[in-house]
Design brief:
Blueprint: E1 2-6, H1 12-26, H2 33-42, H3 50-57, E2 60-66, E3 69-77, E4 80-86, H4 95-108, E5 114-120, H5 124-129, E6 133-134, E7 139-141, E8 144-152
Parallel strand pairs: 4-5
Antiparallel strand pairs: 1-2, 2-3, 3-4, 5-8, 6-8, 7-8
The chain binds coenzyme A.
Length: 153
């Protein structure tokens, strides 16, 4: 089983690793070379925890933990979800759904009425199965092929 909790700074190495590996496995082919390089550079923590930790501090972040290991994360700002990644070895176990539910409930309590996001091509079916709808057609956003989506809470 897994549990969901708030992000803490000691999660940073696991988060960086999950995002890099999962992105390269699932999302790389829907991104330009320049976007791939930018994505990986933003996750660089060789200087300690660097900019990634600073960025996460300005967001609401939940992680999924299984046997004391971080296996997934969701992060965003208010009604916008910016990142959702689950270690590919743990896909289709309900972790992604639970992370988004936690994020939604956190803001539903504060009266938020909807959530928007830019879905990867890979994740569109996942988001549809948890109630999101496409709002426009496919878009190119900074070199990433994405589908804008929205869910009314
Ligand atoms: C998208 C992602 C977070 C889903 O995580 P997950 O833990 O595997 O998802 P869940 O197990 O909670 O799945 C919930 C439902 O969505 C379905 N689903 C999961 N991944 C799917 C996919 N890629 N395509 C279609 N349906 C999918 C599941 O079968 C399940 O359906 P069910 O309730 O009918 O059984 C994960 O695939 C991932 O990390 N992808 C790569 C990164 C990415 O693209 N993130 C989105 C960036 S915006």
């Amino acid at each position: 089983m897994f549990k969901i909790r708030k992000y803490k700074k000691s999660d940073i190495a696991a988060i960086s690793e999950i995002m890099k590996k999962t992105f390269l496995k699932c999302n790389k082919n829907d991104s330009s070379d320049e976007a791939v390089n930018r994505f990986l550079a933003d996750l660089d923590i060789s200087d300690g925890s660097g900019n990634l930790h600073k960025k996460l501090l300005h967001r609401t972040v939940f992680v999924a933990v299984m046997d004391d290991r971080v296996v997934g994360l969701v992060s965003g700002k208010g009604s916008w979800i910016g990142s959702l990644f689950v270690d590919h070895r743990y896909h289709k176990k309900g972790i992604g759904r639970k992370l988004v539910e936690e994020y939604e409930n956190n803001f539903k309590k504060r009266g938020l009425k909807f959530i928007t996001l830019r879905s990867s091509v890979y994740a569109v079916g996942f988001y549809q199965s948890i109630g999101f709808k496409k709002t426009t057609g496919l878009r190119n956003y900074k070199g990433y092929t994405i589908w804008p989506m929205k869910k009314t809470l």
